[in-house]
Write a structure and sequence with these properties.
heterodimer; A: 377 residues; alpha/beta; abc type-2 transporter like fold; 67% helix; B: 376 residues; 2 domains; 4-stranded mixed sheet; 14 helices; 5 strands
Chain lengths: 377, 376
Amino acid sequence: MKLFRIWAISRKEFIHILRDPRSMGMAVAIPMLLLLLFGYALSLDVDNVPTVIWDQDQSQDSREFISKLQGSRYFSLRNYVTSYPEIEQALDSGSALVAIVIPERFAGRIDSGRSAPVQAIVDGSDPNTATIAMGYLDVITFGYSREVALREIRRTMGQKVYPPVDLRTRAWFNADLKSRNYIIPGLIAVIMMVIAALLTSLTVAREWEQGTMEQLIATPVKGPELILGKLMPYFAIGLLDVALAVLMGEYMFGVPLRGSVALLFGMAAIFLVGALSLGMVISIMTKSQLLASQLAMVLTFLPSFLLSGFMYAIENMPFGVQLLTYLVPARYFVTMLKGVYLKDVGLALLAFEAALLLLFGLALMLLCSLGFKKRLE
Amino acid sequence: MFERLYHMLVKEFLQIFRDPKMRGIIFIMPVLQVLVFGYAVTLDVAHIRTAIYDLDNSVASRELVARFERSGYFDVTHRVRNIDELKHLLDRSAVAAAFQINRGFADDLRAGRIAQVQLIVDGADSNTAGVVLNYSGKIAMQLSRDVRINRFTRMKGTFRTPGRLTLETRTWFNENLESRNFYVPGVIAIVVMLITLMLTSMAVVREKEIGTIEQIMVTPITPAEFILGKTLPFALIGFADVVLVTVVGVFWFEVPIQGSLPLLFGATALYLMTTLGVGLLISTVSRTQQQAMMSAFFFYFPAVLLSGFMFPIANMPEVVQGLTYLNPLRYFLVVVRGIFLKGVGPEILWPEMLALAALGLFMLWFAARRFQKTLV
């Protein structure tokens, strides 16, 4: 291996990228645009669930209960309805996700000390929203029951009472439970993964397709030199992207970066080696741009989203799929970013992830060198 | 005309299927994707790994812990003896929640004072944390209630229990709240979009880049035939993929189809018109395959994220919500979920179908117009 040959390939590759301003713009501008758009647009916070109410009782108690629902920011009352077909229509069309039916004699039952059933019909097609909405409903109805009980006790005992057990809750790492604070670090990982793999996936295939590989073969450059040389410019672009993304997270979205910046970039560098090598392997194996880009998209975009732990907790997956996630570089980067961003964890806790990722990247680079044959077929 | 179109189709199919890797990408990848992702996508929160930091160590505190365990939501995986251990567990994400029961919990309860329990959740995943807070709040309130009723019955002999609300929740459409039923139809939609979009957007650029487009231009083929020849094969492939992955969804994951199959395929046809239209448009504005791929990606990524597949559209800022009306996936998701889960028909879904048809026709028309210009 000769350094100057690596350097020459790097320069050639860099000129390629610079000469095509559109590709260059895409490599830098696309990630930023995506982060900007999604950082603002995406949120998993469930509030203002559209709700319809059928109040059959029309009493003071039922109205009080309804005002409790309205008073919470979780439900937004869309309409009062007066029949089941109306409820069906509302849920079918998706104009409401929750329907609440307060039966007749609701107030009478409460006043006579019996239990008063309230019916909630929830659109379960999105189980996540449904579960959270049901949880809120539970809390509101329970709170209402408690108020009734406390009123009753105060009347009979003539004294103020306190709840016997008081649950104090605190959320660590993300005190306001803002979903943005974990979506942004995850997004950075996913976007970087896809961009990195896409960038490198075409680079060797293009040379084969356009015939310039023949010229390269005629030069004394060796396989590993070619691969390293081709990786370097993209590595630089990748780091630039990460830097821009971190700046955006800090200044536009106000995501707190609690951990060390140096650690973050160290991890990013390791991650980029893995992600870029993955694209390179694809490029070497396929030798066709169409195939390479298809494979790169298929292997990076959805897996980074769905198997990285960004959105869906890995420990909830079946064991086999959990094993698969170890092949998704974004998985490590998501863990690292979340750790550094939200928890201020140090190298000690991330060392295992980092080591695995490094191993992954090196294995892929080895695969590149082995797979790359410097001859025409 | 049909003869020329036929030959064009033969050429396209030959070109696509010549490469065994391509065959794999077209037919095996989507199935694999649905299989893996079908298992991966679940937001169900259960078995939350929980640490207990019990400073009281009394009957009452153990009863409290047992209550949390019995709820089925919390798995007590660690018992810690000091706060540092607790912090370490949360740092490592070894647990997602921790209860701290202070010394004197039982005494407070007995004496009628407020007995405090502390719950610490890992807020890094705010979604799970929110659910955990809900669950535990409910359990604590139930405990409070039981203790209070006990206390008053003891004091007064007879205590008239106060009236209370009972919430009877019923879930429609997805009774067991299976995440899979919600996500698998969505995965079908996004996988099919990926395949058709990528294939179409590269198809024409490839000929341009390799130079074979000149050979086609000297043949008597008309632009319309050329466009049809470039889109029809991918439409057919898209259809085949939809059938394939739907079969996987229904028979492997047992996602029920409540609605009508013909409606599903009708809507798929409209949906494919939009993805092919976008693909064709991309191939007319790109000069190299790399550009085409980047453009396709630039369309696909937002299309998936702003479709309501994972992130509810209602939560987005209004400007972005307006943007989603241009997203064919948004409509198609409503349609497939409506057909799969709700079993609704055209009487409910017509606005979405109409929007898909309009988008598709416009895209194809626009792409075709641009395309003729690039040809001459």
